[in-house]
Amino acid sequence: MAAVPTLTAEGVERATPPGDAPVADVATGTARLGHELAARATTTNWLCSPLSVAYTFAMVRAGAGGETAAEIDRVFGFPEGGPHAAFNAIARATATDRVHIANGLFTQQGLPVGEAFLAVLASHYGAGVHPVDFARDGAEIVNAWVREQTAERIPRLFDALSPATRLVLANAIYLKAEWRHPFAERGTTDEPFARPGGPVRVPMMHLSADLPYAAGADWQAVELPYKGADLAMRVIVPTGDQTPDALVAPDVLAAVTRSLGSAYVDLAMPRFDYGSHIDLVRILAALGLRRSFAPGADFGGIHPGLHVDGAVQRATVTVDEWGTEAAAATGLMMLTSMRPPPTTVVRADVPFAFAIVHPPTGVPLFAGIVADPSDTTGGRRDTP
């Protein structure tokens, strides 16, 4: 497949976010979003990148106006001044050789897109424009971009895209990091795990080390830092009747952060390797995001008449004795609510001509005149 050109807003460079960018507000809203998504999980194993979802809707927020913009802010907890500087700061703080964050905008060839919207995407999200033909190979091009940004952990984001698609916004996050304190491979043994459908034996890893640890009334938490990066996995285990989704509630996550202290921990944790596919439209609509998905949405800053017709995320994670590899990609598909009336009118209601041609050479294979469409014989005569 030929490389797709990337266009950028003229004269716009990546901005340096201010020191007071509202990162804490975005972090709180993203944690709440993750909890709401987890509470609506429909699979036994579930995985989501709330940050990837938030990135994608923050980008579309750059072209939203009126109540559409206000509703996005309410659902995602975006700050009143706009989330763009915060997401720019988050990318700069988290993106290392172990974490890769990418944003992409794919537009139908010839679709005019608002300059102010393009400038925000270029300056705060590092996103250029990839013009594509959605009726021909739009899904293939978006999926190829996702594969590249996630080191092929996510082979495709969209199974298909409507030929009527006008624009796709996508975010991809890829992480590959080694534990600062790796588990000993020889210490992994098959042990029981109390799954909801009954116990099953799984490869259980073991680690004894000085680790950040916290405990609440009905949970324990241990932090597993990654080598050479300001990143960590926090494993939160219920000690009472808490369901797992309750353990990613913002108040629990905040309590873990406040309570962490060093302890000599004997940790047993299974290897795991799985992925998720989430249709975000139904879930986000239940959370109150409705205008974005309806004809009449105000995304005039991008292009008149657009609304979000689909929103999906695919994510995958592998955890073993050496570390973690995880990836997520989120995409929004946008259509135009209605096309403007045609500016050119052609009525073949008088005698007319036609030609069937080979456009590259201009050679006419057939040529004809239609003077009476009701005459099906065309004056045809049988040859004796």
TrEMBL record:
Source organism, top-level taxon: Bacteria
Pfam families given in the database record: Serpin
Every Serpin domain range: 31-373
Region (Disordered), start-end ranges: 1-23
Stored InterPro entries: Serpin_dom, Serpin_fam, Serpin_sf, Serpin_sf_1, Serpin_sf_2
Family assignment from sequence similarity: Belongs to the serpin family.
Stored PANTHER family: GH10112P-RELATED (PTHR11461:SF211), SERINE PROTEASE INHIBITOR, SERPIN (PTHR11461)
Protein name: Serpin family protein
Organism: Phytohabitans kaempferiae
